[in-house]
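Figure-free illustration: sequence to structure, shown twice.
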Amino acid sequence: MSERFSENLKIARACAGITQSELAALVNTTKSTISLYETGKREPDILKLKALAKALNVSCDALVGLAPLPDNEICKFISEYGIKRVKAYIDALKKLE
């Protein structure tokens, strides 16, 4: 599996606007398994990879880094700055409201 898989999975999930728990339910696994995928401590088998791609509306190639993720502004922002920085930015904006 590509080194980019865990980061691409986080980005694709964020772009889909779903939680780890919601993704887990969609692909018939547990939240902890999704967390392990996103931290790079575990990799899915091919059937689970296909289920993840379908649930996130991306290709398997995009998840493993062989093709780009969908080209939208939020995904570009997350890809460029990373999910942690984007979350911190959103939290800071919420405090300003």
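We now fold a second protein in the same way, so the two outputs can be compared directly.
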Amino acid sequence: MTKSRAYSTTMGALRGARRRFARSRAAGEDGVIPDAWGRPEDDDLVEKRARWFYLGWGYRSQGEAWIAATAAARAREQRELAREELGRAA
């Protein structure tokens, strides 16, 4: 993301422009825009929920924390092995 004094925008404006462009390309010759399943999209059938709330942070149990720590350790080990292999190949 770049911003300058001459040109500044928000990510929301960019997403909106990209969505409008994609919808105009997806519209058929009759101008009907299909939904994700290929059915004609009708704004009356779409329910929008724009309410977010805080649920909490962290893991629900010690088991979840252990699984996350194990996955992170495995990822670190994989990266380290890949670096060693690259060093040997070069």
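Summary for the second example: The chain has a mean pLDDT of 82.
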